[in-house]
Amino acid sequence: MNKLTFILLSAFVAMSMAFAPVSTHVSSTRAFVAPKMASSEDMTWEGEYPPSKVLGPIMSKMPSGHLGVISLLCLTLCSYSCFQSFLLQQEPGAMADGSWIKPYYVIMGFGGPLSWGTHVAAWIQRKNGM
């Protein structure tokens, strides 16, 4: 009964606030103008590949080989989770009750997009001589 009373009271308060008089006081606010980017922060490029600065403060300092290994590791984790999920789906009744879904396999599944991103970062670093 307490839950029902709380819900009804909350609904009553919400409805009464909807019809409350609106304040006529208008507050003035200053318009915010975004600062212009410095030319050193410009992320455009000319040519076949972008500069390393487009990768951010961490990956722009990593060598291409390290990014390639990270990419391979992420792809391996994603492939492993897909294969293990496939094996779990083959068990009788697994599809009916959802027992084949494991949180750690779902998390490892994010390795696919991460693998793609890090392999592109490795390519950018290799083209830039790192």
From TrEMBL:
Keywords (A to Z) from UniProt: Membrane, Signal, Transmembrane, Transmembrane helix
Signal sequence segment: 1-18
Transmembrane segments: 65-83, 104-124
Protein name per the record: Uncharacterized protein
Species, as recorded: Eucampia antarctica
